[in-house]
């Protein structure tokens, strides 16, 4: 199943290590949840059960955008990242007075500076969905990671413990199924491909890469893909579509061809200037299948000069 839709910060990370070997970890502390007793959309164990496992297992709390995030306990802010790049998006980190280290991911913004001493319950940030270079890399939530007695650099990012085991308050609802973090792929490909008028042309999405996805037998890939295109010579427009092929086996032959809905990118009004446009689509491939891009220029003399791909997907 494929569903198509056409679409015509901050400082870098800073940190300070305020850990001391003399600080002892408290594995039986009582911490505040970041936004109160809200539902959990993905548990710490759910993060560890992913394939592959999360690189930073934690607890995801389902909250509305820009919900206040409160410090779990007293301590010092030791790290903060204000850009949306990478899987973490924006984050802020607290060195707790008990010697533990707590990190809050996917923020809309932080409210306190590095080096600030904060008290239990103080607002330190606002929740968001940032990640992968976008304000909406995920659904809105806050991810909380906890390390006992050291920094993630000292202990290893995957070596967290379950934050929920140390919180105040009673149980909260847990969504029936974890909402795993997708795998992200990002490519920017400068090219020069002449597109004949009124003819569908299959184009590469990266150097030596023709397919957006190739899924083997027994594998299901579900995702979203966004194509950003740049072309010269357009006076009318450019059409974009994805094509999925169902294969008899991992190596073919093709059994069924599934042509997807078309997005039309209109030419830029200024004569001689390049035209840029976007095609976005959700998809599900049940292997063995493959997915590729086709373009059709609506006038002669068109050259594709660039294609960028942003893809988030899950496999099962």
Write structural notes for this entry.
There is one protein chain. The chain is mostly beta strands. Helix content is 3%, strand content 46%. The protein has helices spanning 44-49, 152-155, and strands at 2-7, 14-15, 40-42, 59-62, 68-70, 75-81, 90-96, 101-110, 117-118, 123-127, 141-147, 183-195, 201-203, 211-215, 220-232, 237-247, 254-259, 263-266, 275-286, 289-297, 302-315. A hairpin with a 4-residue loop joins strand 7 and strand 8 (101-110). The chain is elongated, with a radius of gyration of 23 Å. The two termini are 15 Å apart.
Tell me the layout of helices and strands:
Blueprint: E1 2-7, E2 14-15, E3 40-42, H1 44-49, E4 59-62, E5 68-70, E6 75-81, E7 90-96, E8 101-110, E9 117-118, E10 123-127, E11 141-147, H2 152-155, E12 183-195, E13 201-203, E14 211-215, E15 220-232, E16 237-247, E17 254-259, E18 263-266, E19 275-286, E20 289-297, E21 302-315
Antiparallel strand pairs: 1-19, 2-6, 3-4, 4-11, 5-10, 6-7, 6-9, 7-8, 8-10, 8-11, 12-21, 13-20, 14-20, 15-19, 15-21, 16-17, 16-18, 16-20
